[in-house]
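The freezer alarm interrupted the setup, so I double-checked each line after restarting. Inputs confirmed:
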Amino acid sequence: MRVAVVGAGYVGLVTAAGLAEHGHAVACIDVDESRVAALNRGEPPIFERGLQPLLQRNLGTRLVATTDLADAVRASELTLICVGTPARSDGSIDLSFVQRASEQIGGALYATSAFHAVAVKSTVLPGTSDQVVRPACELSSGKRAGVDFGIGVNPEFLTEGQAVADFMHPDRIVIGGDRGTVAVLRDLYAGFEGVPIVETSTSTAEMIKYASNAMLAAAISFANEIANLGSAIGGVDVAEVMRGVHLSRYFSTPQDDGTTVTASLSTFYEAGCGYGGSCLPKDVAALIARGRQAGSPLPLLEAVAGINDRQPAQLVELLRRELGPLQGRRITVLGLAFKPETDDVRCSPAFPTLRMLTEAGAEVTVQDPVVGPEVLHGVGDVAYVEDLSDAVKDADAIVIITRWDDYLQLPELVAMLDRPPLVVDGRRMLAKTSVPRYAGIGL
Ligand code: NAD
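Predicted 3D structure, all chains:
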């Protein structure tokens, strides 16, 4: 099938490359010329494992990158909208990219005669495809949705850091829309054998994505709330608490051969310095804002977001508890990415942590194996060091923000130092006895 993918970000690019790998002819469109040029040179503009080989195999044959949306849409049977849906300052969803892309797609359809399906892959609130995408496409195309062209929804569930694997082997495919669009989407995914397809209304499909993300955010904040209470009471280690919780049959299912399969959901029921990224924070905020607007507030999700916002302060509290005032203390922050295996720093807990530390007068150094110093604006005076051993050698304290595998070397690195620093483990990724001075969330 000939497919146009609008937006060459984490979702659009992985979708475009993945669909090309499945044999479709894909045009990946972005307004960002430098991004398109990098792609056409075979350089992935984002860090995502497995993406480069996919690009190498398909670029120039089944996959092209372009800034010409109209041309790409007209040459396709299906357009997937994969543009960003960021949060506004009040938490509500900013649909301006979706609106603009829909107008442009409609404009491209103006002079076409064949049926064309338009499906929204971006995360949008229930009702958006009907109330925003449909009228924008109808107005600029002069055509009728459901007759001359189709509108549908096909939310994306990939996780950054494992986006290629998630896209190539999805756990579900959710589709909604008019009959023509659903038929096109079913054809698109025909090669994804054995993957359950949920076919439903557009609004339900849109809500499935939000409910999925809100549930994961709630799991994380639940574990953090238990962690914080454990710290306040004392004598409780949340890592062990959660290990005990995960052994329940709800998480760990005994198999006939005597082994146990642990649900990966258990990884969300673990305490840390909070969730970040381009999805959970903004999607929870968008649902909360929509709930208020609809007269159906979401007190549970408001608490989930509030707990998460306060969680980085727990790290600074631990530093103060162990070191006293932070003025002039040399503190090394490890990790800028919101999670390992990605270069995405959007809403990373690293930023509030860095701001609090510089405001407290600490001498702050930061290191990340993938993210460079270019993201360090608005956090105060922070030094960036590339090498992990250099980053830790003179520190009074080290704070782990991102669960990068590289940081598993810390016990070894710390053991070589004459004056071992305090290690504040924001992800509970090290054994608490692995370094001489250890403090962790929920310990
Ligand atoms: P992103 O910001 O990485 O990429 C969006 C891209 O769209 C940018 O490169 C931008 O230049 C481009 N763009 C914007 N308007 C355009 C237009 N009119 N024409 C062409 N290109 C345009 O965003 P993302 O992280 O890929 O997320 C996209 C959507 O998918 C969001 O709604 C997000 O919530 C959702 N989503 C993201 C993830 C994730 O892990 N990042 C997972 C599932 C769903």
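Quick read of the result. The CA atoms of residues 158 and 166 lie 5 Å apart.
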